[in-house]
Structures are given as C-alpha cells and as structure tokens.
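Cross-check.
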Amino acid sequence: MDKLVNFLHFFRLPLLLLLLLALICSISHHGHVAASKSTVEYLPGFQGRLPFYLETGYIGVGEAAELFYYFVKSEGNPEADPLLLWLTGGPGCSGLTGLALDIGFSYTTNPSLADHPSDHVQVSQAAEFIRKWLGEHSEFLQNPLYIAGDSYAGITVPPIVQRLSIGNERGIEPMLNLKGYILGNPGTSGEFDKNARIPSAHGMALISDELYQSLHKSCKGEYHIVDPTNLECKNNLEAFYECLSGINMFNPLDPQCILHQMPVEIAALRRRRRLLQDESRLLSTIDPPELDCKVATYNFHC
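Predicted model, tokenized:
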C-alpha cells in the first residue's frame, strides 16, 4: 500500500529471553505494567524517547492463551489510515521477525496447546484477538482493516479473513471495517508450491531453456512427487538442484546459507495439525545440497 498504516503485530513463541527481560525492565522502570497494555517510550540501547508511538500488551484468547502484540501508530493520519495486522509465517517462527528479528512473548498456561500447535487454533485465536483488540481500541474501529502475512501465513490468513467476514455478516460485535488481506511469498499447498519452483526458476533465468523443457517433458510438470523409476526426470531434477546449489532460494540476490532451525521448531513442525493434511509429502527423495554460509544474517528462515 502506498500510505502509512497503523501497524499491529502479535507473536507466539518466546525465543530471545534477553530481549524480553530488557523490555520488561524498560517498561517497569518507567512505571508501566507488563500486562494488559502499556505505552513504551524508551528501549535499551536507544538514546532518548522513541520517535514513534509504541504500545505493547496481551490479549487473552481461547482456553488459556495470552497473545502478545506490538502496536505502532501511523505517523501519517492514525485516525484514518488503514489498520494492518501482520502475521509472520513459520510454523515455529515468532511474529517479531517482521519487525525486529526473532523474538516473541506470547504464552499459554495449558501445556497441551504449546505441545500440539494447530492451524485451526491459530485461525480461531487470531479472529478472537483482533475483535478483542479493537474492542479495547474502539477509536480504530472505523479504520480500514487488512490482515497480512508472509510465508506460512498464506495458509492461515485467508481463513482468518473468512472467519472475520462471516462474523460481520452474523452481526458479531464489534463490527469490523474489513477491507481485505495481503500475502507476501505465501505458502499455499505443498504440491502447488513445490511444482512452481521449476517454472519460477526458469522465469527468473536461473536455469536454461533446455533444462526447463527437458524437466517439463520428462516429469510431465509434476516435480512434487517423482516416480523413482523415471530416471530421466530424477536426473533432470538433480541437474536442477546443481544449477541452483549456490543460490539463495528465498532471495536470489542474497548469499546462500545453510538453513538452521532450532530443535523445538522442528519438533513443532512435525507435530503441527495443518489445514492442509497432504503437506508431509516431499519433493521426491532428492534433497537440495546444504552449503556453507559465508555471510549469515538470520539463524533460520521463516
């Protein structure tokens, strides 16, 4: 969008305790309570008062979940500018990657909710969160509302918007000025996304016309699951990965890095009950090679 927005962001996983403690100390030092909602005017390492309005807080949702949020008020016209709820993907990634880098403070007092994350639960909690948040911030009820996210949020954002829209149709209060949703680099389904890698790489001139045509012919456009007896397709896929072995698949202009994920995130990914149940299938049996990373900026990709 070409205009400033009120930026609302909520998070799910505690990853960097140091920053959490620093923020709590900062809030406590200035007499705020780290619950409900607090205005943050100073942050450790930043000289002077923050040059923008920053609010943090918790909204209780579901059975026993407390969702932490950051709210940054638009520096344009906050009374009229759109309100944007941003949901970073994952699964297993904190929402603050979109704002600062890999921390989050949400928690639950029900261990089963933490041990068995669910897309359905996130959809329900996100819809409940935004209605409760706007109930506490009624001055923004008339602002155009957009739900946005990247990566895995491509799976959860559309049903969140659908749930909010149905709620409006049923007269659930507060009524939301819901305008739409925004997705960046979204996940859709494992089969569709993985099949799209080859034409996407070809369209970006990362592989030759000859290799693309040979892949398309031998694999018949199906690169997600490959018949192990189809040696021509298997060999072409190996050539494809070899061509892209030095390229960062998430951003071809950045250096290639090994994908690092914390054990807890990998475990959560394996246990996650998904909206799309067929995503456990992998792209044949061929794994992209892991390469050394000379310039690392993130410890893992979300």
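The longest strand covers residues 178-186. DSSP finds nine helices and eight strands in the chain. Passed to J.P. for a second look.
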